Amino acid sequence: MKTLETQKRLAIRRNRKESGYTLLEYAAGAALLMGVLYVGLRAVGGSLEGLMTSIANFANRRATELDTKAPD
User: Fold this and answer.
1) DSSP 44
2) What is the largest CA-CA distance in the chain?
3) What is the pLDDT along the chain (72 residues), one digit of tens a residue?
4) What is the DSSP letter of 20?
5) Contact predicate 41/48, CB 8 Å
6) pTM of the predicted protein model
7) What SS3 state is found at 10?
8) Is 31 exposed, middle or buried (0-12, 13-18, 19+ CB in 10 A)?
9) What DSSP character marks residue 33?
C-alpha cells in the first residue's frame, strides 16, 4: 500500500507540465529550415549568381574610378 506522501509525489509528477523544447525538436526544426532554404536557393540560384556578379562588377568599376581620381 502506498503511503500518502508517495501518492502526493506521484500526483505532483503527473501534473507537472513539460515546458521548453528538447534538442531533438531544435534539430528537427533546423533541418526543416535548412531544407526550405536549400530548395529556395536552388530555385533562384541562377538569378542570385547574376545579381552577385553585377554587384561585384559595379564594385570593381567604382574601385578603379576611385583609384584613378586619388590624389598623389
Assistant:
1) T
2) 96
3) 567 788 777 777 766 666 677 889 999 999 999 999 999 888 887 788 888 899 999 999 999 988 887 666
4) S
5) yes
6) 0.44
7) helix
8) exposed
9) H
